[in-house]
């Protein structure tokens, strides 16, 4: 089975580019040029240098003694939490801003929900001296004050999306509208493996450095490049595809997806797309997402702001159809507890998103000699208030 996009940007039945007519010329140009630009030696060299000296790569592959003993299997943590800005998102924003530069753009527009992608985007815009406009729902601006302050401190202009529910969907609409009106000097920087082709594949390629490093590091530590399992959380799917990418065609490596189960996949407070999603077009690509009878996206819910998204990227819809991964809907309580356990067992405070991946250890048995790699997508500093009110610290 093939897990790369075809000529038209499809993974099997999912993907493609469903976009307004006005965007067609810019998207077509991007589709035609992105692979060639990314593969140029000068691009690769600049990207590698920034990933090394600015982001802090390679991130360690850490053998987690405490977890391994507790679950009687071999657990490794891929430490994306140690990246500059505290999560994997920067791998992608570095790649896309270099691409924007090659395309001759001097302005970046992005949308953000909880603000993490906005911060990663504002960071690389400061680094490259580019103008940065971030659309954010007015409600999210009120809820996520620290990230708004970070973006402003980094020099970004944060614009409030005031229509509809005033959250991520409206921010996406307004960012796209800005791009339609300013196609010549502006690049639209998407934060996950979602959106019209070529974004899901482009983001996957930029995040694939994670699995490239895992192969090399496992060879050094275990004498073989392939683990038995890789576990990652999925909001849109960027950290997970990064961890899976170089193993996708290798069926001996079993892939496990942890989604935001919220209060349960059988309740209406959930973000478990693989359980309740239906096919349709969301954010410019055909995928599975939670929708009402009219096909309008439903509001997703998860304790974790990064997993609180009504769909996932088209690759996951394809993987689900092909049975390439196991999907777990991790409930809020299970994730919060797994996060606290990691603090006690390993002395690492994980992002609540990453805690969903860790929670799989409680739900599924692994053999004693299995090698289980968990992608620790981010650190928990941003979530301290959330952990504190949950556990009453
Ligand atoms: C944004 C975020 C996620 C979810 O996004 P993906 O694109 O699915 O990776 C997961 N973990 C952390 C720490 C994040 O910041």
Topology:
Blueprint: E1 10-11, E2 14-15, H1 24-39, H2 41-55, E3 61-63, H3 65-71, E4 74-79, H4 89-102, E5 107-112, H5 116-128, E6 131-137, H6 138-143, H7 145-153, E7 157-161, H8 168-181, E8 186-188, H9 199-207, H10 209-222, E9 229-233, H11 238-244, E10 254-262, H12 273-276, E11 278-282, E12 285-289, H13 314-321, E13 325-331, H14 332-346, H15 352-363, E14 371-376, H16 384-391
Bound molecules: pyridoxal-5'-phosphate.
Pyridoxal-5'-phosphate binds at residues 87, 89, 116, 192, 233-240, 306, 351, 353-354, 377-378.
Provide structural commentary:
By secondary structure, the protein is an alpha/beta fold. The protein has two domains: 20-51 and 89-198, Rossmann fold; 58-86 and 208-391, 3-Layer(aba) Sandwich (Rossmann fold), CATH 3.40.50.1100. The chain is 44% helix and 18% strand. It contains 16 helices and 14 strands. It has helices at residues 24-39, 41-55, 65-71, 89-102, 116-128, 138-143, 145-153, 168-181, 199-207, 209-222, 238-244, 273-276, 314-321, 332-346, 352-363, 384-391, and strands spanning 10-11, 14-15, 61-63, 74-79, 107-112, 131-137, 157-161, 186-188, 229-233, 254-262, 278-282, 285-289, 325-331, 371-376. The strands form four sheets. It has a six-stranded mixed sheet with strand order 3-4-14-9-10-13, with helices on both faces. It has a four-stranded parallel sheet with strand order 7-6-5-8, with helices on both faces. It has a two-stranded antiparallel sheet with strand order 1-2. α4 packs across α9, α5 runs parallel beside α7 (145-153) and α10 crosses α11 (238-244). The chain is globular and about 55 Å long. Residues 87, 89, 116, 192, 233-240, 306, 351, 353-354, 377-378 line the site of pyridoxal-5'-phosphate.
């Amino acid at each position: 089975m093939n897990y790369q996009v075809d000529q038209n940007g499809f993974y099997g039945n999912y993907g493609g580019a469903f976009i307004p007519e006005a965007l067609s010329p810019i998207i077509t140009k991007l589709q035609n040029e992105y692979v060639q630009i990314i593969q140029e030696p000068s691009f690769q060299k600049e990207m590698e240098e920034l990933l090394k000296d600015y982001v802090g790569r390679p991130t360690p592959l850490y053998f987690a003694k405490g977890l391994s003993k507790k679950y009687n299997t071999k657990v490794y943590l891929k430490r994306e939490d140690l990246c500059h800005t505290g999560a994997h998102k920067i791998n992608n924003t570095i790649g896309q801003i270099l691409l924007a530069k090659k395309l001759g753009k001097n302005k970046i527009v992005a949308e953000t929900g909880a603000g993490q992608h906005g911060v990663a985007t504002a960071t690389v815009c400061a680094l490259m001296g580019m103008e940065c406009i971030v659309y954010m729902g007015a409600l999210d601006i009120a809820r996520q004050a620290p990230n708004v302050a970070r973006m402003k401190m980094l020099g970004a202009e944060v614009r409030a999306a005031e229509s509809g529910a005033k959250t991520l969907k409206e921010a996406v609409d307004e960012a796209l509208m800005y791009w339609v009106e300013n196609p010549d000097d502006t690049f639209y920087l998407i934060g996950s493996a979602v959106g019209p082709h070529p974004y899901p594949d482009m983001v996957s390629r930029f995040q694939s450095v994670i699995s490239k490093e895992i192969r090399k590091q496992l060879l050094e530590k275990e004498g073989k490049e392939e683990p038995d399992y890789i576990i990652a959380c999925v909001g849109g799917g960027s950290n997970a595809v990064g961890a899976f990418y170089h193993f996708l065609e290798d069926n001996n490596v079993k892939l496990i997806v942890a989604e935001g189960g919220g209060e349960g996949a059988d309740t209406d407070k959930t973000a478990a797309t693989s359980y309740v999603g239906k096919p349709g077009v969301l954010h410019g690509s055909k995928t599975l997402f939670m929708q009402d009878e009219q096909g309008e996206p439903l509001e997703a819910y998860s304790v974790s702001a990064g997993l609180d998204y009504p769909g996932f990227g088209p690759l996951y819809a394809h993987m689900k159809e092909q049975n390439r991964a196991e999907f777990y809907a991790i409930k809020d309580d299970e994730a919060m507890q797994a996060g606290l356990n990691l603090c006690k067992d390993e002395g690492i405070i994980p992002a609540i998103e990453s805690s969903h991946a860790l929670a799989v250890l409680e739900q599924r048995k692994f053999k004693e000699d299995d090698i289980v790699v968990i992608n620790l997508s981010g650190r928990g500093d941003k979530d301290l208030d959330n952990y504190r009110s949950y556990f009453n610290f």
